[in-house]
Amino acid sequence: MSGWIKIHRDILYHEIWGDKPFSKGQAWIDLILLANHSDNKCMVGNRMEDVKRGSFITSELNLSERWGWGRKKVLLFLKFLESESMIVRSTNNKRIAITIVNYDVYQYQGTAKEQQKNNKGTTKEHKQEKKNDKNVRNYNNFERRKYDMDSLENKLIEVDRNGTTDKA
Fold this sequence. Notes:
The chain has about 170 residues and is an alpha+beta fold. It is built from five helices and five strands. It has a three-stranded antiparallel beta sheet. A two-stranded antiparallel sheet has the order 1-2. The chain is elongated.
């Protein structure tokens, strides 16, 4: 499978999203959903921090409560994601700043014209696939008919030699 889907952030407020404990996959999607969709500022303690698109500020405790996990499991999971180059963490004693690597891949923000162009391209690809499938079916039918014709020709040769048809 390839491609992507859009998930509306409102899923975060649906009762099925609150079922705990989270799976690792659900926690990963949760991180993507928590990331800012545009550059923003956030108050941390008594100062403002710039938070870029694809990043957000949280804490181990916050994620622990959110996912229904212990703090150690949260930390190990974040370290795993970092080792897999899925996130970048920046921590201090007050917060964790998490940046989703390749956020734009997960949340493409193209223009409507680009989307239409992509849809047209996809439609052309599907039409080409259907055409290719039809060509394969036609070829297979041709091969089957060719085999039938060869078989019929062999039977006719056999009839000419023997003067009769062999019925087995």
